[in-house]
Amino acid sequence: MYEREVNRKNVTEADIVVCLPSYKEADNIAFPAKVASEGLAKYFPDKKSVIVNADNASPDGTEDVFLATETEIPKIFITTPPDTPGKGWNFENTFRKAHTLGAKAIVCVDADLLSITPEWIYYMAGPVLDGMDYLTPLYSRHKYDGTITNNICYPLVYGILCRNTRQPIGGDFSLSGRLADHITTQTWHRTTHEYGVDIFMTMNAILGGFKTGEVGLGAKIHKPSAPKLGPMFIQVVGTAFLTIANSFRTWKDLTAIQNQPLFGLRTLDPAQDLDVDRAKICANAKEGFEGAAGELKDILTPKVMKRLEKTFGAKDGPVIDTDFWVDVLFDMIAAFPAHEDKAQLVEAMRGLWFGRVFSFMNDTWELTSAECEEPIRAQGTRVFERRQELVKRLEKVFS
What we know:
This protein is an alpha/beta fold and 399 residues long. It has helices spanning 30-43, 62-68, 87-101, 118-129, 147-159, 177-185, 197-207, 229-246, 248-251, 278-299, 302-312, 322-335, 342-364, 373-385, 387-398; strands at 4-6, 16-22, 49-55, 75-79, 105-108, 134-140, 173-176, 212-219, 262-264.
């Protein structure tokens, strides 16, 4: 759904579309637009290309900055109506526009990126033009950046959908025109049209049997995501749980982890630095648990709830190890299909997530970001090893 389009060069065909989804990115969007143009002109001079800024009616002049940015590659601006926010709307609008242009490859990069290089466009678009359908990013990140990815999305994609996809919601993707068409035909929910769109795309690429891979992109440097974590948590986790529940018959019989081809960089840059307030994470965990305790008693099994009450009452803060965290995830997913207020269920989980993050920080505080990869991956491994427990529980739900 978009209200308005500005297509000054009257572009009607494109082999490659670069999408910059945005909301209030006037201060940032010129840089990725320029770099994307450089990459397209340098590495794909024989292809018809266009840069699309898919916006949410930003009030800060994002449109004017984007259109005024000098680029060799033509640009198109499209926007949702006012008061229609959501990254998912921006992607859906781009995919539909790409379809009308006949695009073979679509590259989606965040509009606030500071680390994008012309080579990113080559790394992301090239393999898709050669037959891949979907590439997720692989970049070095601070060990405590991407806490939704590390503790929820990655373990679920690895252990339940059996695909070794390290950054399933990294924000920067490339996909084929045929996958974009497939995604637009799936059932989109409210959270899908918001921040839930990244995990929705990744899960549907896997569940749809498309050719997936990863692309090394160095380090991701962008604006801190902390201010968005409140709504992002509800939208991402809600979309993930809903997709897992709705596709149960598709994934339940999977038995082996599928690794993926890696394109782009093999050696990644040092991770972006990040200030972490462990005490605040602990406070958020306790506050969230106390506020949702009544709701959680109706969601979780008595054994899990009793253990949570004990650990959240501890003076030094909660301790939620990997196996206990898998218990929590499975309880939540098993309760999700029948729960009347799914957003409320996910909201009730927020304090538990903070508790897991706090516990993980305590366990890994002295490790480097690179060393933290092993315990992060161990979460996915444990979900996979125990996945039959969840299958049996969902069989009863859907019987």
